[in-house]
Amino acid sequence: MYYYIYKMTDPNTGEFYIGRRKSDIEPELDFKYRGSMSSWAKEETFNKDILIKEILIKGIETFEELCELESVMIGEVIKDPLNKNAHVPGKGFVCRGHSEETKRKLSEYFTGRPNPNYPKKLSDEARKNMSEACKGRIISDETKEKLSEAMKKRKLTDEHKKKIGESWKTRVVSDDTKKKLSEIAKSREPMSNETKDKISKSLKGKSLNLSESEKERRRSPKSEETKQKMRKPKSPEHIAKIAESKRRNKEERDRSKDI
Predict the structure, then answer these.
(1) CA angle 173, 248, 194 (to 5 degrees)
(2) What is the dihedral of CA 202, 206, 207, 211, to 10 degrees?
(3) Which of 17, 32, 95, 139 is most buried by a 10 A CB count?
(4) 150 SS3 class
(5) Burial of 208 by CB count in 10 Å (0-12 exposed, 13-18 middle, 19+ buried)?
(6) pLDDT tens-digit profile of 16-74?
């Protein structure tokens, strides 16, 4: 028995569907199977004959692993406008957004109506139960490797990259989150020389994937305001952090020499 994840793509529109398959023959020879795609098939423009079939992941050993991989793969692209999957297996249907007409009707319906959940708040027990439900899901190393290989083949369009960049520009990190991130960074063990060497080797020969606007910004001369900020003397707290970081790095180097 063979298990594999496939992708069906419309060459004219770029629309695609991801599904799983259990077959008695090898994935490459299973070309007659064209997928179910029941939700996509309801559209008038749908034409199964022109779809291009691609094998995303093969060599899957169990049906459970097949289902898990399908859920992860669809979950990564479910909100892509070109994706034609109706839902994420095991997680339910996902709303891709309402039309302007639907938004107007919903606005008229809810205007003046109080939120039924306000001012209710989730109890600590409810939050804990939700947290526990998300924990405990263990993905095997083999599954992680297969997901990694599949994601390496994924290519983002320029429009997708632009949207991701814009979303990060408007992201605001609260002071509480900054404090938590700082505490996590302080508790980490200093990076070993071996790890540093691996990172250095992996980055050699690679160019930064910068947009043209970012390249232009880096080439442009610094403003006087920026120069003044760079000349501004560091605070005692900042100096103490730098000294502590240097001390920890030195201790790590000394331990490496002893080994």
Answers:
(1) 90
(2) -70
(3) 17
(4) helix
(5) exposed
(6) 999 999 999 999 999 888 888 877 888 888 888 889 999 999 999 898 889 888 888 88
Closest CA to 8 of 52, 47, 39, 49: 52
CA distances from 206 to 149, 210, 218 (A): 19, 12, 18
Q: Tell me the C-alpha distance between 20 and 132, whole Å.
A: 28
Crossing angle, helix 63-77 and helix 141-152, to 10 degrees? 40
Identify whether the C-beta of residue 81 lies closer than 8 Å to the C-beta of residue 14: no
> Do 6 and 74 meet the contact criterion of CB atoms below 8 Å apart?
no
Using CA atoms, how far residue 60 sits from 101, 116, 191, in Å, is 44, 46, 35
**19: β partners:** 6
Asked if 248 contacts 190 with a C-beta cutoff of 8 angstroms, the reply is yes
Q: Whole-model pTM?
A: 0.40
- The Cα diameter of the chain in Å comes to 73
Separation CA 191–CA 35 (nearest Å): 48
